[in-house]
Amino acid sequence: MSKATTKKTQIVGTESYINHATGELEEFNVIRIEDADFNFDKFWVGQLLTAIDEFGNQKIKLLLHLIQNRERSNNAILKTVRELAEDTGISKDTISQTLKILEAHGIIKRKTGVIFLSPSLVFRGSHANRRRIMIEYSQAESNVVSIDRDSNEPPAAAAAQSAEKIAA
């Protein structure tokens, strides 16, 4: 995956300038050129560093797996503890411990069947989209029943089942 920056050009409007050689008033278009990131994952490591002391190798491996396998549009991972264990080779106990640590440090929030990575940690997209995801993330409930479910049950069905349990 190549990383690149692009130049973003925006026409601001017109302004009048005096030509010092002739003394005439001349109109010019004024443009603004800015560097814009393209295809970058942005990390704000301050939040991550507060949790790093509690991490071991398997826990770091899980965090990197979550970052690399998130949905880029909303920073969500639609996986259960069991699926994460199968994908990474990490025990379910270690995954559960790691998710609790990440949640305690505000790096993730969980809803039934979904893990959300904080856009304060990593996000790909425009500044406006990051703000939108930050608002959604801050409003996400942290009350998690369990994201562990049978591997043959689709995430939506598990979420619906858990929602029914909560409502009952």
Protein topology:
Layout: E1 4-18, E2 25-38, E3 42-43, H1 45-52, H2 57-68, E4 76-77, H3 81-88, H4 92-104, E5 108-111, E6 114-117, E7 122-123, H5 127-139, H6 155-167
Antiparallel strand pairs: 1-2, 3-7, 4-6, 5-6
What does this structure look like?
The chain is of the alpha+beta class and 168 residues long. The chain folds into two domains: 4-38, no CATH class; 42-167, Winged helix-like DNA-binding domain superfamily/Winged helix DNA-binding domain (Arc Repressor Mutant, subunit A, Orthogonal Bundle), CATH 1.10.10.10. The protein has helices spanning 45-52, 57-68, 81-88, 92-104, 127-139, 155-167, and strands at residues 4-18, 25-38, 42-43, 76-77, 108-111, 114-117, 122-123. The strands form three sheets. The chain has a three-stranded antiparallel beta sheet. Strands 1-2 form a two-stranded antiparallel sheet. The model is unreliable at 142-168 (pLDDT under 50).
Summarize the structure.
The protein is α+β, with helices and mostly antiparallel strands. The protein contains six helices and seven strands, in the order βββααβααβββαα.
